Amino acid sequence: MKLSTAEKHLLWFLYDWIRPIRPGDMKEHLKLKHPTLNSQLEVLKKKGLVSWKKYGPASLTQLGRMVASHHVRHTRLLEFFLINTLSIDEEVAHEESITLAPMVSCRLADAINSFLNNPERSPCCGEIPQLEERCVFEKQEEGI
Ligand SMILES: [Zn+2]
Ligand SMILES: [Zn+2]
User: Fold this and answer.
1) For a tag on the chain, would you pick the N or C end, based on fewer CB atoms within 10 A?
2) Which domains does the chain have, with CATH numbers?
3) Is the pTM above the cut of 0.90?
């Protein structure tokens, strides 16, 4: 099972939002049409990542939260790498890491992490979540 970039964005949004939110309130933040949002939520629900009843508020399941934590980890490791290893300006590194993160696998994130000696915080975005397990989606893809 794979997540599309659009599905990932929706997942990250729900993670940052923290509280449950209705699609009607979500659409202005995400700049998506209501039917698009509904069908994306339906897909995420089928994958067990989101808990949602039509017209009601949506929130992440425990599994959804775990997948989103990986995203935060990958983004911040990348950011740390860009700032400290490549000496890229903090503001630019922040933007680049957000653009690149949906394409970074756990395998690559773990390699960056070892190269950097397990950094605890990204210089501009705070704590880097330490996750022992690889993301469930990646385990399936890699056939582990
Ligand atoms: Zn940042
Ligand atoms: Zn990961």
Assistant:
1) C
2) 5-60 (1.10.10), 70-142 (1.10.60.10)
3) no
